[in-house]
Amino acid sequence: MPPNRRLTVLSGPSGVGKSTVVAELRRSHPEVWLSVSVTTRKPRPGETHGVEYFFADDAEFDRMVGSGELLEWAEFAGNRYGTPRTPVLERLAAGVPTLLEIDLQGARQVRESMPEALLVFLAPPSWEELERRLRGRGTEPPDVIERRLDAGRVEMAAEKEFDLTLVNTSVQDVCLRLIALLAGTPEV
């Protein structure tokens, strides 16, 4: 049986490039398992239950929280999101490199319930670059961008709570370092 691996958690402020890094990691290293979150939000066009998310109603989500089925959960923009515990534990027990991409609140919950997890903070090269990325998306109104920037200030201040920081100057470099961490090999 493969040795148990340590759970790796990737977190950082909105706009830092977490989803871009995770997409590249999944493309180049399909052996890494990325947890699929459960959410109370409605599916968007093209989303499939069990692929992008597990979709649940409020009652089902409440039941999952109450029975301890979620490793972590948080509310964002009026919807709740959480990480199902059992699939994570099964992958870790099988020795599968396991990654969670979650927010600061979720990372703190994982630290409480699984102190052996490796918490990785993805940081922007600078605050100005983070602001440029958020504004440059062109997908959200100015008030939403300002809320994300306010949240980003709080998230940046929490960097010291993480085991290590990777600065996202290159998606490929961040992926190489994450793979080394997930494999349990010395950092590159």
From TrEMBL:
Where ATP binds, per the record, is at 12-19
- Which molecular-function annotation in GO is an example for this chain? GMP kinase activity
Name its cellular compartments. Answer: Cytoplasm
Write down what this protein is called: Guanylate kinase
Q: Which family does it belong to?
A: Belongs to the guanylate kinase family.
In this entry, which stretches build a coiled coil? none
Which reaction(s) are listed as its catalytic activity?
GMP + ATP = GDP + ADP
Organism per entry: Microtetraspora glauca
